[in-house]
Predict the structure.
Amino acid sequence: MDLLILLFFALLLFGALMIPWFEGLLKRSSYLIIAILAIGLAFVLRSIFLNYQSGDFNTFLARWIEHFRTSGGFSGLAENVGNYNVPYLYFLALFSYLPLNDLYLIKVLSIFFDIVLAFGMMKLAGVFTSSVPKRLSAYLITLLLPTVILNGSMWGQCDSIYTAFAVLALWLVLSDRPKLSMVCMALSFGFKLQAIFILPIFLVLLFAKRIKFWHFFIFPFTYLIEILPAVICGKPFMETLTLYFNQADSVGSNLNYNSPSLFAIINTKTDIATFSAIGITTALIFVLAILAWAWFSRDRLGNDALLGIVVLFVVGIPFLLPHMHDRYFFMADVLTLLPAILYVSYIPAAVFTSFASFLCYYLYLKGKLILPLRYGSFAIIAVLLLYFTFTADKLNSRRTKIN
């Protein structure tokens, strides 16, 4: 491993330990020992996978960095490269200037945002509980979630980035800082379109009077600032602004791409267009139904109920939509963890979600199935049923803080 990368890795390890320390969560020696062991394990596991080169790295990410290297770094943003939005490409352009291993740079970036994600989960947990063990658990278990470890350190993907900003947005809005929340949500959307899975919660927050209508204008303003550097470097403005719309026809024609969605159960290759339309319509009805439920329950939308609705969105939308990929349940993996920490009876839901995603990760990374993907889909159905019950229960109780 490059010496500088090793130094960065060590700094990340140190920083990961300092975060709960400065949050005052390690005052007891037992908590300090647990944190050292858990964070040490999290980084040992990540170090094991650092040399692994996934197909996505070899086929896409490595070539994109090479494009920037041969095109003058940030000047290469003027050209069409890759199918990621420009905020992530800024990092790749920056990496092209560094005389370091591209594989390690990409993975260290993702690991850094694993820590940001864990920080966000710890702060979000603090909205619901003052319990030090629960807040510390939210931080440590996030770092140890199998799909969080595999996504960045093995696969070399960046789903922790958009999810970290989404979790921070949720924490900020529930902490009565809606303007900063909108900034973080726009940053999340700027990195990955999959941020749309959580976006409907902001309409629910409007119903609950946790945000004001004018706060929504912060979102496009922030997004414009995100894409501005690429425009300055020569990329056409409208092409940059409408990148996600232009990619709508490039998601692929298969109903399912190795994900635990509904279409892992409905395994048909006939009349794909019809089944795709049915999936999109069903997902839209699902969202509208939850929004209607939230509207008629708007006087009872406490933090617990809002959390349940968030989970329904991030689990249910990718479950019902066609053309979903293996990593699209990453946000669900993370956010189903929080209720499991707050309420012991919801641990199975977190396990089911991680199990469903892990089946898909294993198939991609190892090229073989542990179990048929439909088992993951059945697990997701169980999670949805559990969270409909959770949300209904919390709508009958406005508790916002637990021990």
Notes: Strands lie at 256-257, 324-325. Residues 3-395 form one domain. The chain has a mean pLDDT of 94. The chain has one domain: 3-395.
